[in-house]
């Protein structure tokens, strides 16, 4: 009996639940989770927002049951669907680390799930979400579609469609199949891509009964509300309550679901009693559905399925979406650039490159093919392409076997100004009142102050006010002109693998990453390198919401960067997804360091994309 009790006590499990409700005191709820989960040795992710909670934690089953009992004491959680499952205990391996099951992470966020990384034309209210259908009701609807006796959904002249609200890497290994319902798979990389797909297919959806499903239900809450917010013709939206997980519990043989349910914890996937494999290897198309190797697309970093026979060490792979969208271009030709060319002052986009010939990105699958990465480089405020190229000559030299740096001028031309230095010597003061005698190249910026007049006078002028080290905080206008300029340049001189920005150039590069969904097909980058960066016009951006692999390089607290504060660069880094971002802090001021170990860290980051 004692041995049986010991075995039961050691049983491990995973608990998933979410609840949309108005949280009057988020800080107090944070303290509860911090205290409760720590005392029970629970590991995983807890996300809190003013509109609810989203929890995925693991631990001993007895501890998870204690946690549920404690949560239920709070009336806010009345009616919450707690999904508790027993499983093996996670080991301290790559899978567990990626899924966040080697530590406890509690965060206060703006939204429980980010429906879009950009502001939406309509802000969906969760109270307007689709009607919940239990697993049994959902199964009945799929079985009886077209049957006029079905009372769960109204009759529709157009019919019924079924939308899978998950990402492509999830739908590869399992989904609902039924001959009675048209199934729509958006084939999205990430959940924030879903609104664009809904918008593009709105006429196809209008007038239908719309059924939706996802892993556990939370993504359907916001997505169904977004569909219903479109108004007439989008009233009849239904969602599987509890998601695929509850459905498989109700129908252990799988019912209408084929394959495995991808889950965001160390289990990776959960299947039914039907052992058939529905996923296929990216390379050989043999049946395969195991993501435990965490193999990813070289271009967009999405998980891909590569079987044990095809997977090789140091190999690179290209997912179906990158292939379909021509993210990778066969090296059938090369574009020439004159290394001595400077940007035309009439704003026709050209490029200053660090090499004479640029190889376009090859389509790679299987063993890695070494090639040069093309990186578009954006200079800082009151700089230009040729000057930035000169300042980064050491960086370009040390990266010459890895990357070609292509420099461009910003589109906003700035006036020539100089500051007067005051001292006690009247003769020196008179001397200081004279403008610089040497001729200077024109200076540009990506963002300007609201009172910018677009001057292009070649005469020097005395600055209106003393130098302000925080002037970058006032330069918030001009994004539309700069993004149009970059799109035009990309169409003529692209494609590029990555984008690098320094100071204000890093702020502009970050805005490009923020708007990646809107820019699809016009300008796409696989990674971003942001040096001494800061955030501009990103106040609505949620922490960790920008899903672009990123390298952040900036001065430490005592890094002697008198231009950009350490906290400003640190805040910008926090807006990028933590799992695919790298931070390098240094003590050398407002520069990009090229001495070891910093250059080695930069090279390591870039080699991920070769």
TrEMBL record:
InterPro entries: AB_hydrolase_fold, FSH-like_dom, Rhodanese-like_dom, Rhodanese-like_dom_sf, Rhodanese_C, TrhO, TRHO_N. It holds the Pfam family UPF0176_N. Residues 156-256 form the Rhodanese domain. This is Rhodanese-like domain-containing protein 6. It comes from Capsicum annuum.
């Amino acid at each position: 009996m004692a041995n049986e009790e010991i075995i039961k006590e050691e049983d491990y499990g995973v608990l998933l639940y979410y609840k949309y409700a108005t949280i009057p005191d988020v800080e107090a709820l944070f303290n509860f989770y911090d205290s409760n989960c720590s005392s029970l040795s629970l590991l995983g992710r807890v996300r809190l927002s003013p509109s609810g909670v989203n929890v995925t934690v693991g631990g001993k089953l007895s501890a998870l049951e204690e946690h549920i009992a404690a949560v239920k004491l709070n009336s806010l959680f009345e009616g919450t669907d707690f999904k508790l499952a027993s499983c093996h205990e996670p080991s301290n391996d790559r899978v567990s680390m990626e899924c966040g099951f080697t530590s406890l992470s509690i965060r206060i966020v703006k939204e429980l799930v980010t429906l879009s990384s950009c502001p939406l034309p309509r802000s969906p209210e969760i109270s307007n979400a689709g009607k919940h259908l239990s697993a049994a009701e959902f199964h009945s609807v799929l079985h009886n579609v077209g049957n006029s006796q079905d009372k769960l959904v109204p009759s529709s002249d157009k019919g019924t469609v079924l939308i899978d609200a998950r990402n492509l890497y999830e739908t590869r290994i399992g989904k609902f199949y039924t001959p009675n319902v048209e199934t729509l798979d958006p084939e999205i990389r990430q959940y924030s891509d879903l609104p664009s797909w809904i918008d593009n297919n709105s006429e196809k959806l209008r007038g239908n009964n719309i059924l939706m499903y996802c892993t556990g239900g939370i993504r359907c809450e916001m997505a169904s509300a977004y569909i219903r917010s479109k108004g007439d013709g989008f009233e009849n939206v239904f969602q599987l309550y509890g998601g695929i997980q509850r459905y498989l519990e109700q129908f252990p043989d799988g019912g209408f679901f084929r394959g495995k349910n991808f889950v965001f914890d160390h289990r990776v996937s959960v299947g039914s009693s039907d052992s058939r494999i529905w996923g296929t290897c990216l390379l050989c198309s043999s049946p395969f559905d195991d993501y435990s190797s965490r193999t990813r697309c070289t271009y967009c970093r999405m998980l891909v399925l590569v079987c044990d026979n095809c997977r090789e060490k140091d190999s690179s792979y290209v997912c179906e979406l990158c292939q379909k969208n021509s993210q990778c271009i066969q090296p059938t030709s090369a574009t020439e650039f004159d290394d001595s060319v400077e940007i035309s002052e009439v704003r026709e986009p050209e490029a200053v490159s660090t090499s004479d010939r640029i190889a376009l990105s090859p389509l790679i699958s299987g063993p890695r093919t070494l090639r040069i990465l093309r990186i578009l480089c954006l200079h800082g405020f009151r700089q230009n392409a040729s000057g930035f190229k000169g300042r980064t000559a050491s960086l370009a030299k040390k990266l010459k076997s890895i990357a070609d740096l292509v420099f461009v001028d910003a589109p906003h031309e700035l006036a020539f100004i100089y500051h007067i230095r005051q001292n006690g010597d009247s003769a020196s003061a008179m001397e200081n009142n004279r403008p610089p005698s040497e001729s200077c190249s024109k200076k540009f910026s990506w963002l300007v102050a609201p009172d910018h007049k677009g001057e292009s006078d070649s005469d020097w002028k005395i600055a209106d006010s003393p130098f302000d080290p925080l002037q970058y905080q006032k330069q918030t206008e001009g994004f539309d002109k700069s993004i149009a300029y970059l799109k035009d340049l990309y169409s003529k001189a692209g494609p590029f693998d990555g984008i690098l920005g320094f100071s204000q150039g890093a702020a502009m590069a970050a805005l490009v990453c923020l708007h990646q969904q809107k820019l699809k097909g016009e300008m796409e980058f696989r990674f971003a390198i942001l040096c001494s960066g800061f955030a501009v016009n990103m106040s609505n951006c949620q922490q960790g919401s920008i899903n672009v692999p990123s390298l952040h390089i900036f001065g430490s607290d005592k890094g002697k960067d008198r231009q950009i504060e350490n906290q400003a660069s640190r805040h910008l880094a926090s807006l990028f997804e933590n799992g695919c971002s790298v931070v390098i802090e240094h003590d050398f001021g407002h520069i990009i360091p090229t001495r070891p170990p910093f250059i080695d860290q930069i090279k390591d980051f870039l080699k991920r994309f070769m």
